[in-house]
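Morning!

This is the sequence you dropped in the shared folder:
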Amino acid sequence: MSSTVVTIDADDTLLHATRMMKDNKIKHLPVVDRSGSLVGIVTDRDLKKASASDATTLEVHELLYLLDKVTIQTIMSKNVVTVDKGTPLKQAALLMVDKGIGCLPVMDGKQLVGIVTRTDVLRYFASLDG
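The structure's back. Tokens below.
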């Protein structure tokens, strides 16, 4: 689990989320409201689906203008699958496989305390001997 979680606000833009993911080298951004409660999640796949096609006839400045108008709340997944901080890693990994998701926000009650990603699971199992 990564206990340092990069989050984004639902009112932030697609362009801002893209920059955050690139700058932090991450693929998942939990979406929190002003009180810090988890309200959704946005992934690199969500951003790609909401972005313009390479076949667009828009000029670069027009495209950037439009991307800066799309808010996270319009593209985020609202029904977020989470785990409790005491959930065993094997159970979290099986949940990720069953749900076809690449990450699980880790909660302590209503407080976001971390995130488990597919990479975290692979890194753990690769570190095991035998």
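Headline: Residues 8-127 form a domain with the CBS-domain fold (CATH 3.10.580.10).

More detail when I'm at my desk.
O.
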